[in-house]
Amino acid sequence: MSDLHSLPPIPVASRREAVADRLRDAITSGQLQPGQKLTEIALSQQLGTSRAPVREALRQLEQEGLVVSYPYRGTEVLGVSQEEIENVLVPVRISLEQYAFRKAVPLLTEERLAQLETIIADMEKAAAAGDATALADQDVRFHEAVVTYSAQPHCLQIWRSIQPRVRAYFRRDAGYYQDASEIAAQHRELLAALRAGDTEALEQVVAHHIRTHFTESEAPRS
Fold this sequence. Notes:
InterPro entries: GntR_C, TF_FadR/GntR_C, Tscrpt_reg_HTH_GntR, WH-like_DNA-bd_sf, WH_DNA-bd_sf. By secondary structure, this protein is mainly α.
């Protein structure tokens, strides 16, 4: 189990958001493991801040589903199980992203398409460097960009509510692809479908893409 002493101190000027960002990154990257107990005292000492921003940050992370607080037991890191991915996150993502991608099609300017191309290029660089964390982060960035382009505030709100847990399983599973460049290739298929503008075909590509990630993450791990 990871040691809290491995977390670097936070600058004095930073507050709740900095604490939340630091802990969120440690959780989604696996530095802090599921079941690990987090205490305000230990975290405030390690991060070099008072207990108030730590308390607020833990409350925020609980709302994001990354930690859970139990009466008399304190706060623990939550993992993302394959059961949750299959029965909750994958179905929610398919419904949400099929709708958002369809709505985004008529709103995709050349500038926005170029931005998506840039994200895919960053995926390819991360894959070539063997940087699974950066690869997963660019994966999240691509999907959030399209949801944002859809101009559907409710979709973006739902996406941001599940994004921390989606990011957690992206970062957990990114290193297990036999060929990391395949992730970028999958997103090129999504981008091609967006460019083509056939919404029925696009919905099929989106569903296949999301299910493919789940299938790949189920592969035996060595």
